Amino acid sequence: MTERITFPHSRAPRLASGAIAMAAVLALSACATREPPPELDQARTMVNTAASNPEVARRAPLELKNATDALARADSAWQKDADGPEARHQAYLARQSAATATALTQARTAEDQMKDANAEADRLRLNARTREAEAARGQAAAAQAQVGSAQAQAAQANAQAAQANARAAALEARLKELQAQQTERGLLVTLGDVLFEFGKAQLLPTAGPRLDTLADFLKQYPDRRLLIEGHTDSVGSDATNLTLSERRAQAVQQALTMRGVDASRITTRGYGKSYPVASNATPEGRALNRRVEVVIADERGTLRSR
Amino acid sequence: MPLALSAKRAPLWAALAATLALGACSSTPAPREQMAVAKSTVDRVTTTPDTAAAAPVELQAARDKLANAQRAMDNKDYDEARRLAEQAQADARLAEAKAQATRSERAVREVQDSVRALSDELQRRSPR
Fold first, then answer.
1. How far is CA A39 from each of CA A73, A75, A91, B87, rounded to the nearest angstrom?
2. Is residue B42 part of a domain?
3. How far apart are CA A210 and CA A205, in angstroms?
4. Nearest-CA distance from A83 to chain B in Å?
5. Domain coordinates of chain A in residue numbers?
6. A297 near A226, Cβ under 8 Å?
7. How far apart are CA A236 and CA A244, in angstroms?
8. How many folded domains does chain B comprise?
């Protein structure tokens, strides 16, 4: 609104300008002497404290600007009207806004920390799950290893059983080699004359394999007792034949003992020419009569001597 | 603007000034916007849980000032109404911010506690 008022030339303007100058001096002196209200100082302190905190400037810029704007309004209101309520009002707004900015900064700082803590919690939980999975895998592997070892044991047992069966089968086969005969006195194995030195009790090395086989078999059945009987043909004196038959039986006992058969299981006898198995009239018959018979008890322990 | 006072026309000048002053006084508009903003803020903050516990003084001040602002409005004391409305708004905002800070700080403490517990648990489970 523009206003132009013109006055006729007179002394009045000079008087008026003098009055204005005086008023200005009065106003200035009022300004210089009047202290601002304590509310304004307090507000300034609070706003400055908040503004000097870079966190507040960063996290609550709008509230901080509200505070500084209100403080500026408070200053200018005080300049205009030192006693009026507006300066104190704006100072109050500045103070509350500064406090709000500070509280919002606290809240937003905590929210950021919350994000960090949540991330850390997620990391730890993932860690825990990974470890559990690893442990589970480890347990599974251990269980599998146990199954594997059980299977291995079973396989070993099977193998042992098979081996035992095989050995039993082999023994059966060897007994057949020995031409063992099942008789009413027990299992009878005959060691022929060819296994001894002529006319002596000395076993020939060729007897070794048969004796080994026999010893193996006897060791397989440690409960079975056995009877070793020596026999001769009818050539020569009775005394000589008896002695020879006894000594041949003892030689076989010794050979079996040396191969690990318990001596207490063995009984030896010499029968001389008393029990021929063939006719002494022919050389073939006499050869068959010169022999050592090993009688092995059956499962029931039956063992009968002559 | 060249302006000078005339002693002869002083009554006229005084009348003009009085008219202007009166006009200024009666032309202070009703602070409807400030009232509306203050009311919605105070309502919002009042219904937010925890605010009464976190900032009881500020919340009560905001409510009282809003009520007083309404009374000033009824009395057509619009300057006072505006100031009270603005203060109610500022108090309510402060109460809201304080409640938010309390909530956030409590929440972060809880999460940090659970992180510690989880960390301890992990430590115990694997002493390697």
1. 13, 11, 6, 14
2. yes
3. 10
4. 15
5. 35-168, 178-296
6. yes
7. 11
8. 1
Residues within 8 A of A (CB atoms), B 36-95 only: 79-80, 83, 86-87, 90-91, 93-94
Give the rounded percent of residues in chain B with a pLDDT score beyond 70: 77
Taken in order A188, A194, A198, A200, the sign of the CA dihedral is negative
Contacts of B111 in chain A (CB under 8 A): 114, 117-118, 121
Which residues make beta-bridge pairs with A293?
Answer: A190, A229
Residue indicated by tokens 């302006």? B3
Identify the pLDDT of residue B7: 53
Per the listing, tokens 């006992």 go with A253
Q: B71 lies in a domain?
A: yes
Q: Write the pLDDT tens digit of every residue in A44-84.
A: 999 999 999 999 999 999 999 999 999 999 999 999 998 88
A92 touches chain B (CB under 8 A): yes
Give the mutation candidate from A1, A3, A4, A5 for the B interface (greatest B CB count, under 10 A): A5
What pLDDT, on the 0 to 100 scale, is given for residue B17?
Answer: 57
The more confidently predicted of residues A248 and A191 is: A248
Q: What is the pLDDT of residues A128-167, one digit of tens each?
A: 888 889 989 999 999 999 999 999 999 999 999 998 888 7
A178-296: CATH number: 3.30.1330.60
Task: Return the half-sphere exposure (C-beta side, CA atoms, 13 A cut-off) of residue A215.
Answer: 18
pLDDT for A21: 57
**Strand pairing partners for A266?**
A226
State the nearest Cα–Cα gap between A102 and chain B, in angstroms.
9
pTM, two decimals, is 0.52
* B125 within domain boundaries: no
CA-to-CA dists, residue A125 to A132, A138, A224, angstroms: 10, 20, 72
**What is the chain B residue with the closest CA to A112?**
B108
Residues of A in contact with B80 (CB under 8 A): 85
Q: Is residue B121 part of a domain?
A: no
Task: Decide if A106 and B122 are in contact by the 8 Å CB cutoff.
Answer: no
Q: Is-contact A83 A39, C-beta < 8 A?
A: no
ipTM score: 0.76
